[in-house]
Amino acid sequence: MSKRSVADLKVGERAIIQAFNDEVMSLKLLEMGCLPGAEVCMGSKAPLGDPICLHVSGYCLSMRKAEAATILVE
């Protein structure tokens, strides 16, 4: 079974960040508070599904679905 990513979460669903599958993007995400072991919650999605809003590390973070797909969760 393949790992799920943040992009796979439904609105209101929570998950724990496990790892990243894009080394360059992971540096940017780490700086924004997306740390392994942190809980992330899908806050909302734009009408066409992109961008999305995540709740992580005590704040809302907007990102493109392609970026969210690089964050692997449990």
From TrEMBL:
Record-annotated Ferrous iron transporter FeoA-like domain positions: 4-74
Family annotation (InterPro entries): Fe-transptr_FeoA-like, FeoA, FeoA_core_dom, Transcriptional_repressor_C
Keyword terms of this UniProt record: Iron
Cross-referenced SMART domains: FeoA (SM00899)
One MF annotation (Gene Ontology) recorded for this entry: transition metal ion binding
PANTHER family registered for this protein in UniProt: FE(2+) TRANSPORT PROTEIN A
This protein's name: Ferrous iron transport protein A
